[in-house]
Write a structure and sequence with these properties.
Blueprint lengths: L2 E8 L6 H17 L4 E3 L24 H13 L2 E3 L3 E4 L6 E8 L5 E6 L5 E3 L5 E3 L12 E4 L2 E5 L8 H9 L4 E3 L6 H19 L2 E4 L3 E3 L4 E3 L3 E3 L5 E4 L5 E8 H10 L15
Helix pairs in contact: 1-2
């Protein structure tokens, strides 16, 4: 299908998994009723709690409780669902994966992506953040061929690594998914700029569903959006949980790549570290 409607769901997920999944189910129903062929969810869509308060209903298997609900909804409505991300149990490890699934219109999982990049930093004031202490990084670039085009996957912090997106684009990807739980502090300055850059430099659509609202450790930025291959924001969520819609046009995507052939004009013969 060369042209279709994509719905992105902006959420304020909290520490009640069943409530979060009930809200997600209602948003999927709404999107289906409005003619969406594909629905995309944010990072950690099913549960955000505070481990320091004992709120730790995190880890799941895949398939598991949350993915099975999404699989049922995809089959019920005959649409694709990109499951944002959830916390996937890693056997025999204290850490877990941050994992996305893509579900087709028959309710089958057709792609599984585990977040590659973990945010590890020591700030000038000595504050240490080690996301890798909790999250085990994935080990592969993941794309999927579908009737809605070739899709490529990332999660949140991954968007700061343009080489990931270039690799996916060189493999023929037409639509990037970038679910996130971005902080307000960085989101207001970086979120839109990075997403538009990833779209422009690769000639791809970017579908960016995000969390909004007060979380245990920060306020989430929201501003879920879809960016077209020209770099234009063609859909943006309101400042609240809800669904936004955008038309994905793969013929337009091909025209943009023909007009600005940056992928063809690459100099891979001279790109190497010294």
């Amino acid at each position: 299908m060369r042209k279709y409607t994509a719905a992105l769901v902006q959420l304020d997920s909290q520490n009640d998994k069943s409530d979060n999944m009930e809200k997600i189910s209602r948003f999927i129903d709404e999107a289906a009723a409005k003619g969406a062929s594909l629905v995309s969810l944010p990072e950690v869509m099913n549960y955000i709690g505070d481990p320091e308060k004992g709120e730790a209903d995190l880890e799941e298997t895949i398939p598991g409780y949350s993915t099975q609900i999404l699989m049922q909804k995809a089959k019920e409505h005959g649409l694709y669902i990109h499951g944002g991300s959830l916390t996937e149990k890693k056997p025999q490890d204290t850490r877990h994966y941050n994992t996305s699934v893509m579900i087709d219109d028959k309710g089958e999982i057709i792609a599984v992506y585990r977040k590659l990049h973990t945010f590890d930093v020591t700030l000038p004031d000595g504050t240490v953040c080690r996301e890798s202490a909790k999250i085990f990084p994935g080990d592969g670039v993941v794309t999927a061929d579908t009737k809605f085009g070739k899709m490529g996957f990332s999660i949140c912090y991954d968007i700061r690594f343009p080489e990931l997106f270039r690799l996916m684009a060189l493999e023929g990807t037409q639509v990037f998914f970038t679910p996130a739980n971005f902080t307000l502090a960085t989101g207001k300055d970086h979120w839109e700029s990075i997403l538009r850059a990833r779209a422009i430099e690769n000639g791809c659509y970017v579908v960016a569903a995000a969390q909004i609202g007060k979380k245990p450790q920060f306020v989430a930025y929201g501003n879920s959006m879809v960016v077209d291959p020209w770099g234009t924001v063609i859909a943006r969520a309101k400042n609240e949980p809800g669904v936004a819609y955008a038309e994905i046009d793969l013929d337009f995507q091909e025209r943009v790549r023909a007009q600005i052939p940056s992928l063809k004009n690459r100099r891979s013969d001279v790109y190497r570290l010294q």
